[in-house]
């Protein structure tokens, strides 16, 4: 095994141009982890936030930092306690947020956060799944405890998380209303939304009080536009953990709904459930653009336009990527 590998990351916080090639030591295999030869890596808004230093006072990372929280690839080695995966298996995973490490030739992943690749996805497609699909799944399943026939409003339905949330909520038997702009109407319709609201033409502020869950992918603070549409006893799920503050909490309580801002966590059991949904044809990743690893800064520039429909993916090992 080699001592060093190629990766893309940053030595100081800044704009997308700070992303640069880094020669890194090979990640160290521990008894409970798996070494993955990375074939493709997903790009998430979190990657751009880390690079800009937006989280620097909340999550400490060591610089230089290798970006990337989603990987798909081939098992190159397994720790001595790992029995459920073997060398040569095709796998994918979300990496721990504060560690990153996805934009690299190799990544080490704790075996409990890993899943085998869905049989019907390529490595490129699979690398678009973990973080965004886990966010949608954990929000709808763990926090909202969605039941069949629940009415769900998904704001930001055309983004990385939203495209999975629409499909997963539908697979859970919910009645899904998706909110997006005009250019993404046909996309969210294809994903299976039962009703669609074009926010450029209709304000969610005028919606009647009829939703059990409002899944909000915007980082609003402290009040959420459209929250008046949540039924009494319903819930507002926010992807902004900053929403767990006394002002927003009190406001939600006064208006008769629960408020939860949450953070996704890597979880192999949840990822294996998502894998099943993908293999059943109930969930599939939407990929907007793909890039070479060397084009990571371009992928960040596009992500930062906030106009990505679905996901962005980096091709890392060209010989295996298709
Ligand atoms: N808490 C967590 O664990 C967690 C996990 C994942 C992501 N996040 C955060 O959640 C947010 C969404 O993530 P993502 O991956 O879905 O982002 P994304 O893929 O970059 O979202 C892009 C989408 O957002 C939509 N959008 C942009 N501005 C909008 C607006 N004003 N109103 C409605 N929709 C708008 C766009 O659709 P249109 O062009 O149709 O407007 C676009 O399709 C990000 O801030 C991310 O950092 C948090």
Intertermini distance: 25 Å
Ligands in the model, by name, code or SMILES, are: NADP nicotinamide-adenine-dinucleotide phosphate
> In the CATH classification, which architecture of the largest domain applies?
Alpha-Beta Complex
In terms of DSSP E residues, the strand content is: 25-35%
Count of extended strands: 16
Helix/strand structural class: alpha/beta
> Structurally, how many domains make up the residues?
2
> What's the CATH topology name of the largest domain?
Quinone Oxidoreductase, Chain A, domain 1
Give the number of helices: 8
Helix percent reads 10-25%
Low-confidence stretches: none
CATH class of the largest domain: Alpha Beta
Relevant CATH superfamily of the largest domain: Medium-chain alcohol dehydrogenases, catalytic domain
Order of helices and strands: EEEHEEEEEHHEHEHEEEHEHEHE
- Shape, principal axes of CA atoms: globular
Structural descriptors:
2 domains, alpha/beta, 322 residues, 23% helix, Quinone Oxidoreductase, Chain A, domain 1, Rossmann fold, binds NADP nicotinamide-adenine-dinucleotide phosphate, six-stranded parallel β-sheet
List the helices and strands and how they pair.
Elements: E1 4-10, E2 20-25, E3 33-43, H1 45-52, E4 65-66, E5 70-78, E6 90-94, E7 106-110, E8 114-116, H2 123-127, H3 130-143, E9 151-155, H4 160-171, E10 175-180, H5 185-190, E11 195-198, E12 211-216, E13 230-238, H6 246-254, E14 258-261, H7 268-279, E15 287-292, H8 296-303, E16 311-315
Helix pairs in contact: 3-4
The structure holds NADP nicotinamide-adenine-dinucleotide phosphate.
The site of NADP nicotinamide-adenine-dinucleotide phosphate has 30 residues, from helix 1, helix 3 and helix 4.
